[in-house]
Amino acid sequence: MNYHLITTDAQLKEVCQAASKASKIALDTEFVRVKTYYPQLSLIQLYDGEQLSLIDPIAITNMEPFKNLLTDGKVTKILHAGSEDIEVFFHHLACVPQPMLDTQIMAAFVGHPISSGFASLVNKYLTIALDKSESRTDWLVRPLSDKQCQYAAADVFFLLPLAEKLQQLVDKLGYLPAVTDECQRILLRRQEILTPAEAYKSIKNSWQLRAQQLACLKQLAAWRLNQARRRDLAINFVVREEHLWKIARYLPNSLTELQTIGLTGQEIRCHGQDLLQIVTQCHALEEKACPQPLYHLIDHPKYREAFMAVKTLTKQISEQQKLNTELLASRRQINQLLAIHWGLKKSHNTPDLLAGWRGQLLTNPLKQLLALYC
Predict the structure, then answer these.
(1) Which of 112, 121, 209, 336 could hold 214 in an S-S bridge, CB 3.0 to 4.6 Å?
(2) How far apart, in whole angstroms, are the C-alpha atoms of residue 149 and residue 268?
(3) Distance in angstroms (rounded) separating the CA atoms of residues 365 and 351
(4) Which of 48, 102, 155, 182 is catalytic?
(5) For 234-288, how does the pLDDT look when each residue is reduced to its tens digit (9 = 90+)?
(6) What is the pLDDT of residues 339-360, one digit of tens each?
(7) What pTM value is reported for the model?
(8) Is 146 part of the annotated catalytic residue set?
(9) Which intervals hold domain HRDC (predicted)?
(10) 3, 30, 48, 200: which one is catalytic?
(11) Can 155 be counted among the known catalytic residues?
(12) Catalytic status, residue 28
């Protein structure tokens, strides 16, 4: 297929001006994220139905025309499994594709698995077999080969016709407003930024720790996240999660004790003194200055019964509506609902299962059901 490699500011401006006249454009990105905290944007694929452009963000100095296109409300952006692409755009360009439709989401609404791959959908709806041999290539290396470029181009060339077929099916079923709502929720969720003060809550088994230990984990997790962001280093390349938990659990007092509980030599050499300083600070904390214990949801006496009741109810409703059960209510969303219902989790937002298109289907039956599990 024909593509244009865009490597100058002037070329980018021209391409974006042409694409802004289209009602829909297909977008994809290639990025590398092995040891870095932030994804390293390597290529942007853009197809407006007439011209297919491979935009090299490494060579281009002014991305403003593309940012304007990305936020142009008159142009719908089509992506597939776009969560990571949204994160890439948000980090590198400080904006997200708006409005946006995701073909993976559309496919889920017409009965496909929640994580359907692009190649399988293209094969089913367009009867075309895609070559995915370049999926693990190093996109930062220049120059890009023609094989790499053809692979990247295919990811957007077939995206518009696939989206058209899926959108017709979704619209026929009456789910287009729900698809739009779900895509908007993904956009909002991918713009959420974890604060260092909250990082400890996502550490596995943090609920097992007592007050002073939890205070230590809170400071350790915040320190690690700040280190990762400042150095653009994957968080487990700073200190591994299980090692962070062990420090909080055992509160070691020396480099030898850090080694005893399992930290690597590199972790101790690079960060041992900083880690011990945090432990020392936490030794002096009074209990009233420590965070509240984290409640383990599954330890709630009514958890198992309530979880199965909600799962059964949502499965019944998904079957009635001919919806993918996991799309309607995932385990994470059921747990979120129960945690908020029992006051174990504070949230300024309505639980997913009671909001948007899900809320229209589930709010009344779920409220009646939850009244049984107070």
Answers:
(1) 209
(2) 43
(3) 15
(4) 155
(5) 999 999 999 999 999 999 999 999 999 999 999 999 999 999 999 999 988 888 8
(6) 999 998 887 889 999 999 999 9
(7) 0.93
(8) no
(9) 210-289
(10) 30
(11) yes
(12) yes
